[in-house]
Amino acid sequence: MTPNATPVSAAPSRRRFLASTAVAAAAVAGGMPLLTACGGGGGEGRKEGTTSGKEAKKILPTYVASNVVAPDIPAKNGSAAGFVKPIDLKNLKTAVPEKLGRGGKLKIMAPFWGTPPSNGNPYYRAMNEAIGVQVTWQNQDGNTYDEKLGAVLASSDIPDVVVVPGWNLNGKIPSAINAKFADLGEFLSGDKVKEYPNLAAVPTDAWQRSIFGGRLRAIPMPAPYVTDIAPLYRKDIFDKEGYEPPASAADFLSWAKEATNARAKVWACDDMKWTAFTVFGVLPGSDKALWWNRVDGKLVNRVETEEYLEALEWTRKLYAAGVVHPDAKAGGNQGNAGNRFTAGQVLVYSQNISDLWGKTAEQRTHNKDFEMGAMDIWGHDGGDPTLWAVQPANIFTFVSKKASKEQIRDFLAIANFCASPYGTKEYMLTVFGVEGTDYTVKDGVPTKTPQGINEVNGAFDYTGDPAAYIAHPDLPEIARQQVEWQQRMGAFTKKSTFYGLTVTEPSRWANLADDFEQLEDDVVRGRKKISDVQQAVSDWKKQGGDDLRGWYQKLLDDNGSAS
């Protein structure tokens, strides 16, 4: 799955987390709420709500843009920045002119997919030496990380530093964050962050998401706020057959019927539910706070909207017409959608935009004619789409409250080093490791060795990241496609009422909407009806939805919106 040259979005690591098909699918699943413990006004004991407005301004770091390396394509409309020229390995810039680490020791717990490398490997040793901190990694199985995280936070034995993916912020974990992790504001709020220039260049929106319990507790992973789910299509087959990308929901269904040939084992698409949500302008499903938006002075939840029902009905029609691959209908297993796509069994599937690089790099090694693209999201009626911003950070790294000030400073030295921008010496070490051991260079393109693929993966790059960017040294044209797609879609993207805020819902309502995702899947596959969704919405309102609306309204009245 991992191609030779490793760009910014290869999986699985914090900097490149969402390129993994499995992780990306999990991250966008509506059943995985990204709810975190935030208090208003800085109250240490408050476990519900959020912090914004004047209170947040007192906490947030001062933003100072980096001028170390200029991107080839500047960020615009909420996109990542893009680097599409070969990386100049002979003229790398310096982002950290002197060691900030003070020689201390830290234990860091993080998720890992695969077999973790030993702590004494050349990459870990080189990073420790360059930063001036001795790190011991406690890598845990990413598939069961939430269970391990819950057990660790419930104990008194917490590592010095802990990585927490947003989709693991559920159950008792959010409330434990306030109690177990340190306030970093003493070191980062306001102009204090200037001691760490690479962290000062992290966008304010990402820092806003790092306020937990009224305190700045985390180092965030900045992300574009443009939707990361795209309808990806086989451009090579489209060109061969003379197909044009559809321009409306009706066009797509009409084309899908024409393109499907079950006898030849070719279906137009895999499950398209997530594309349907964007096409019909449904509020995003990756964070329950984003399920709410103020419309005509009243907060409305995504499940109450006509757009939500229309998206489900359109997806149901695709299944009913027989244009969806039967494996998707049978099990709804999106983990294999990409394989069905590269095999030519489906021509379109919904997935993270990073798959545009991942699948292209994978296929180019043995199928030179393979070409895919990302369709621009169309409005369901053929007009401009209405898209909604996703959260600007979804992975966080915390420091234990038991850590000394010296340990916190050592951790910030790591974060600042790892947040160095593309095109610097620090970036090359963080992302590619040790030349000759972890990667080699051919025709100016750094290429990971098998050792580098295993070792330079899911460790130091969890602790800090620059502003969102895309760079693929092996396939720069794909980086351009991804960034330009984000910028085009960003032009139609709006920020909903609770964009940029980290919200903890009261525990009595935390599981109120948990059954909707399964119901959605049952409806689109013909096992349930739209009327069942309408009944579920009615039940949801009576069982606490209307009360939750009132709670969100008070939250908005008290704190205001960050957008």
TrEMBL record:
Residues 1-24 form the signal peptide. Its main location: other. InterPro entries: Bact_solute-bd_prot1, SBP, TAT_signal. PROSITE patterns: TAT (PS51318). PANTHER family: ARABINOSE-BINDING PROTEIN-RELATED, SN-GLYCEROL-3-PHOSPHATE-BINDING PERIPLASMIC PROTEIN UGPB. Belongs to the bacterial solute-binding protein 1 family. This is Tat pathway signal sequence domain protein. It comes from Streptomyces leeuwenhoekii.
